[in-house]
Amino acid sequence: MLKQPDRISIFNYCFALGVSEVFFLSSFYLSILDVSLFAFALPFSALFLMYSLYLFLQTHKSIKTLPDQDEKRREIHAFYHQSFGIFAIIFFTLLFVALAYIPLLDNGGHFYLLYCLPMALLCMIPSIVSYKGMKLFKLDTGRDLTKI
Questions:
Q1: Structural contact between residues 133 and 63, judged by C-beta atoms closer than 8 angstroms
Q2: Confidence band (pLDDT; 50, 70, 90) for 138?
Q3: Are 100 and 31 in contact (CB under 8 A)?
Q4: pLDDT value at position 146?
Q5: By the 8 A CB rule, do 87 and 57 touch?
Q6: d(Cα 120, Cα 88) in Å, to the nearest integer?
Q7: pLDDT tens figures, 30-81
Q8: What are the DSSP calls for 46-101, one per residue?
Q9: Are 97 and 112 spatial neighbours (Cβ–Cβ below 8 Å)?
């Protein structure tokens, strides 16, 4: 899938993120079936997750260099708002999975622990960048709500 450099959209990185989640969920399915191949799906999931983080940071860099940021304020704010939600959900999901698999270290839980904790910390980077972007490109409603 080709990245559209002129568009500010979450679809710039969502395809790679979706492929990452497919590998992650297939590793769960293989783990439930007690097939030892689940450990081979996790590195591919990590690879595509890191690639989606790279695409997010490239989109963020292109937003910072836009000449007409004030005209696209609403689109930029929506991008950061949606990105914050997506990466915060992924962060908490990976953190929960890492904590849930601690009692199952004998049955391959160490693979999930070694995968989920670093990937959860990597998902904190775009969450923080998105939160700062939402604060920077805050939408001005134009109404003074204190007079109501």
A1: yes
A2: confident
A3: no
A4: 59
A5: no
A6: 9
A7: 888 877 787 888 899 999 999 999 999 999 999 888 888 888 888 889 999 9
A8: HHHHHHHHHHHHHHHHHHHT-S-TTTTHHHHHHHHHHHHHHHHHHHHHHHHHHHHT
A9: yes
